User: Fold these one by one.
Assistant:
Number 1:
Amino acid sequence: MRTLKHLFDRNRDWAAKMKERDPEFFARLSKQQAPQYLWIGCSDSRVPATEIVDLLPGEIFVHRNIANLVVHSDLNSLSVIQFAVEVLEVKNIIVCGHYGCGGVKAAMGDEKHGMMDNWVQYIRDIYRHHQIVLKAQPDEPARYNLLCELNVMEQVWNVCQTTFVQNAWDTGRELNVHGWIYDIGDGILKDLDVTVTNRAESVAIRRKV
Ligand code: CO
């Protein structure tokens, strides 16, 4: 298919509906973006950032990749975090994982997936790091769910280690890093209660994960 006409049709309808609801919506947004949140989530099509918290375009700055990873040397996620923290001055960074994450699943088995296996290697490291508690789980589904949660906690820790986040805290700015998980089975978000609001708390979270 050379052109995806049906998507352009849907786009026209959507833009018209938005304008009908709020005639100044696009005019206002085109002047500047001032989102209050940075969302770091999975690429999974079932976990769209803005929709699941019922917000509008302009309200969340988003970075998504397979299994919502924040890798210390990944220029992509680091650039997003730097821009969000230093230029947009967001006050909240949300790392949101989800149960049933294919990236996490890929890291639990021996099946080969190609290039992606290198990316999910970071989750294999998390598995190794937490293998005692993971192996103590009653069954595979419980282990899978727990690894999805541990992965979020590790990424919260990684966000807290970035120089931009630490600089923000050192200069007394309010900046909160949250770890959430989404259930694709019922559409409900859960706060994993690992929120970090300063350097001291980031050390405490290290002990938790
Ligand atoms: Co996923």
Number 2:
Amino acid sequence: MHRRSFVLLGAAGLGSMISGCSDDEGFDLKNAPSGPIVLGFSQVGSESGWRLANTKSIQKAAEYNRIELKFDNAEGDQKRQIAAIQSYIDARVNVIAFSPVVESGWDEVLQRARAAGIPVVLTDRLIKTADESLYVSSIGADFVAEGNLAAAYLANDYSSGKNSVKVVEILGTPDSTPAKQRTQGFTETISKEKKLTVIDREAGNWTKAGGETAMRKLLRRNKDFDAVFAQNDEMGLGAAAVLADAGREPGSTSRIVTVDATKAGLQGLIDGKLNYVVECSPLIGELLMKAVVDLFYGGKVLRRISSEIVVFDKFSAATALPDRTY
Ligand code: GZL
Ligand code: ZN
């Protein structure tokens, strides 16, 4: 009841506020739902600390913005994500949002959402499609920039001495946007500064166990390498454990750079197991809910809404860790 009154008041309030304004102010109340906005959200899974924080951020922001959230966790299964999106179409929600576990295979279900007149917003990851009109906006970090920064910080860790540094890379889920674009960014930067060379890669699928398995395979195949680029904290910490067992002193003899900046990642910096952690904030729930409210209450919704990126080292990690929310 209380939620409804907020939205009705909002609509009425806005109605009275804008009754005199012309269309060109972009207000478009014809689509505003009579009750609370109903958002159907399909989440990738619960594979990492980043993902859990992202889920919490979305659920909290929906509550705070009095948006009725239908939430499904696909546990990494694309078929389940597609089924969830279809169920939201059948339930005639006002808007659908999801973080696609991989980039391909979404056109059909998104065409059905469009046919039903339901706008779609992508969060975190992206889709590969020839038809860009299948979604109205995407919200997330620039993964290519994350890869650029990982390479730049790793290279300058070797500024003195070594002029050729061999790197092994541990990837997230193949065909996911962060896995593809972090590699793209890392490769772009090392081709410019000519110090680092990626000599081998292995997928770790975002988990600590996956990072351990990948690191063991890379160790078997490559006797001589200097550093590891792990595409998220969990895989980097898994790699560090295997390197320590192999007597390769992670964080010193073998430098490690990761992405996400979860509590575990920052602790890894403080413990000297990791050297740099590029943050990719999962706290995009507020950005998503603002876009959803703007969709229906006439604000401007950008095609691309970026979340910010920073790079932590052991000193900045010590400062940030105490009040880290994820
Ligand atoms: C990145 C996000 C990735 C994280 C991983 O925005 O898609 O998925 O880097 C998570 O930890 O599994
Ligand atoms: Zn990111």
